[in-house]
Write a structure and sequence with these properties.
The protein is of the alpha+beta class. The chain has a single domain, classed as BirA Bifunctional Protein, domain 2. The chain contains five helices and ten strands. It has a seven-stranded mixed beta sheet, with helices on both faces. A three-stranded mixed beta sheet has the order 4-3-5, with no helix packed on it. Helix 1 links the parallel strand 1 (2-9) and strand 2.
């Protein structure tokens, strides 16, 4: 599995690259993890409802082909896009989602943060607050999009939306749970290692 560290990127640029990678992949294409942060952006899933954007802001809104509703991405949030051959895994979609959630939970456990998944809605939660989101799409035997983990970011833009379509869903981040907050690089290395093992 190839790991690509892309730094801070505009969402639309990476979204187009994900689509191109998936469209052009073959049975011999190596799986990749794309690790990055995004400049501020709201993204709306394929069946997303724009009414979940509660307030119009200067932050752009981009419609995507992933599952799920609306979410926010910004600096200080760790993004990992899982560019993997879904057919090779011989698993169900919910099993892939569970594996990604488990990778996040194990990463947080390394910091003594007790996290859990919710069988009713994707993502990872700490004391009822959401700390990580997931959204995937399967096409041409490939799974793409992936996860976002809130590390050390401005959470205020989440107040302008119903995160993932849920009114009053509170968000949290590692910075609010741990002092001092570990570096983005440290959290990244832990999460990437778990994803490599579990995926």
């Amino acid at each position: 599995m190839k790991i690509r560290y892309l730094g801070r990127q505009e969402y639309e640029t990476v979204y187009q690259a994900m689509c191109d990678f998936t469209d052009n992949r073959t049975s011999n294409t190596e799986d990749e993890l794309w690790v990055l942060e995004h400049f501020p952006v709201f993204t709306l899933g394929k069946a997303g409802k724009i009414e979940h954007l509660l307030h119009k802001t200067d932050i752009p809104v981009v419609k995507t082909d992933r599952g799920g509703q609306i979410t926010y991405h910004g600096p200080g949030q760790l993004i990992v896009y899982t560019m993997i051959d879904f057919s090779r895994k011989n698993i169900l979609v919910h099993e892939l989602v569970s594996s990604i959630e488990l990778s996040i939970i194990k990463t947080l456990q390394d910091y003594a943060i007790v996290a859990n998944k919710d069988d009713e809605r994707p993502g990872v939660y700490v004391a009822g607050k959401k700390i990580a989101s997931l959204g995937l799409r399967i096409r041409n035997n490939g799974a793409y999009h992936g996860l976002s983990l809130n590390v050390n970011m401005d959470l205020n833009p989440f107040h302008d939306i119903n995160p993932c379509g849920y009114a009053d869903l509170e968000m949290t981040q590692i910075k609010d749970l741990l002092s001092p907050c570990p570096s983005m690089d440290e959290v990244t290395q832990k999460l990437v290692q778990y994803l490599q093992i579990i995926l």
